[in-house]
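Hi again,

Forgot to attach this to my earlier email, sorry! This is the prediction with calcium ion bound. I've pasted everything inline since the attachment limit keeps bouncing my files.
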Amino acid sequence: MYTYTPATLNSLPASWRRAKQGSRWAWLSFGRYKSPLLVVALSGFLVACAGLPPAQYEGYVLDWQDEFNGRTINKDYWRHAVGGGGYGNNELQYYTNAETNARVEKGLLILEARRERKAGWPYTSAKLQTLGRKSMLYGRVEVRAKLPRGVGSWPAIWMLPEDGSGYGVGWPDSGEIDLMEHVGYDQGTVHFTVHTAAYNHKIGTQRGASLRMPDASEAFHTYAMEWTPQYIRWSVDGTTVFQFDNPCTGWQAWPFDKPFYLILNIACGGDWGGREGIDNDSLPWRMEVDWVRVYRYLGD
Ligand SMILES: [Ca+2]
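Structure tokens for the complex follow:
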């Protein structure tokens, strides 16, 4: 959620790079098997998947899940960030705990950024985090979400350490894992990134990948992160899009042996999100989350 020039495909294996350079989803065109019929069949399959119970993975066990089937946000899992201040990126929103900015509705968690003044800030929005309630050390996180659309919006699904002490002096030394980031002026490009002392945007060494997802704001997709002592691997709808391997050279490269917590938010403007201004007519912006499922890592 920190500003940087979006990482491109330099660090990806050639096979992934090819997949990501296409303007469409790689798995909608299986070479000679490409056909409208296949696309229709796959679409039906994906729709059906939305209602399925959590998948099972070898080496992991479901730890907690929020399907957002209740009437209110479950405080056993989530707490609101409240306040403004720019969050290190000159962001323009004031985060509130109002239902207008975050609520559960018809099986979905709705995060909504609105054009309304609050405490001197021109927009209100929401940031929900599991800080102090549900953190994890290794494991698997899956979030099925539909992203907002609008120049100036900056939604993210990401993770920070519960306690970064012992790894340098704060960000980026203590690490950041971005399951998903999207900036509205580059509609349909989704970013997956890791920040550490050795790898971050301030020195042009951040590690990550970007993927063209033309329907990211119209359709739900499952953004997932698998985290073991050896690697962090990102996937979208079950297809791997990036992997960061532990180089085993110390915390400067891998500050990921401590518990992290999950964050869902929409920032307004900011150094990256607001690079091409804010289209005020496009607000309110809504990010919809169908479910969050978190799996515990069972060890090697
Ligand atoms: Ca749901």
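The chain has one domain: 14-297. Residues 3-34 have pLDDT under 50 and may be disordered.

That should be everything now.

G.
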